[in-house]
Design brief:
The chain is mainly β. Helix content is 5%, strand content 40%.
């Protein structure tokens, strides 16, 4: 099955724009076709694949995150029993996986399923689909960086949840294809029919970077962070006053190190206790999420 899948992906790459080089940042919102060439729903090896792009019209799934379309485990009907369905996003990381290069992927999900028994998974492949790694696999924890919270793809999310994680350094793994990475999003159901809606995603953003201090994931806040690099203190400034804006600083393992509120659209953050290295700042208000990279000297 692995060999068949690899062959399918390679043929698809050769015969379409799916594998062409592109800018370092792009979005997949399912409302236009600009970047859908990066997405592949495998109905060849799996004719019963549930994933569909369209307007959700189900019991719980009644609207997309950005209207009208999302990718859903069937836009009209509840998911069946004994089913495994997947779709794949293919990316070419800028500069490959070497050094500080990282591919960060994020978006929004909504889940309505039988808790633990029916669930979603997210995997990545560094060798064109021969090996698939679950992002929760502790063996590969040094290659995966979460921007909390981790996605919980089972039970009921009770609304749209933002998720984001990055992968880097994969050139160190045997058989790695250093300039290509695949992300596979699956949903698995057991032998009991529950008549629930399943899983859906919307508004993916994929960002590749190779060591610069650019934004990694911007959802519309447009903050300024300076100086960057910095040794003792950084200043975070928002374009306008935002109520309940919270900043959190994480290390590359996704561990929360500093958390504080932004007051009067501008705040200073003491980073003197941090070790020298690369960190991520997550800024959240009542509407948007933004993630940026900083360097502590």
């Amino acid at each position: 099955m692995k060999k068949i899948f690899t062959f399918i992906v390679l043929v698809f790459c050769i015969t379409s724009v799916f594998c062409q080089k592109r800018d370092a940042v792009y979005n997949i919102n399912f409302d236009d076709t600009n970047n859908l060439s990066h997405l592949f729903i495998d109905t060849i090896s799996n004719p019963n694949n549930l994933w569909q792009i369209g307007e959700p019209q189900k019991t719980v799934f009644t609207s997309a995150h950005s209207i009208p379309n999302a990718i859903v485990t069937d836009t009209l009907y509840s998911y069946p029993k004994n089913n495994i369905s997947s779709f794949i996003i293919l990316d070419y990381p800028a500069g490959g996986f070497s050094g500080e290069g990282m591919t960060l992927i994020g978006g929004y999900y909504k889940v309505n399923s039988d808790t633990l028994k029916d669930y979603g998974t997210i995997e990545f492949s560094y060798d064109n689909g021969t090996t698939w790694v679950n992002i929760n696999d502790t063996l590969y924890k040094f290659y995966v960086m979460y921007i909390p919270p981790k996605p919980v793809l089972t039970g009921n999310s009770n609304g749209w949840i933002h998720f984001s994680f990055g992968v880097s350094g994969l050139n160190l793994l045997p058989g790695a294809h250093g300039d290509t990475i695949l992300f596979r999003f699956s949903f698995v159901s057991d032998s009991i029919q529950n008549n629930l809606d399943g899983l859906m995603y919307d508004d993916f953003q994929i960002n590749d970077f190779a060591g610069s201090v650019e934004d990694i994931n911007s959802m519309g806040i447009n903050s300024k962070i300076y100086p960057n690099p910095a040794s003792t203190q950084i200043t975070i400034e928002l374009p306008k006053k935002e109520e309940q804006s919270i900043i959190t600083i994480y290390n590359l393992n996704g561990e929360e190190l500093i958390k504080q509120q932004i007051k009067n659209n501008k705040t200073d953050v003491d980073i003197s206790e941090l070790q020298s290295g690369v960190y991520f700042i997550k800024i959240v208000n009542n509407k948007n999420v933004e993630i940026k990279k900083i360097i502590k000297q």
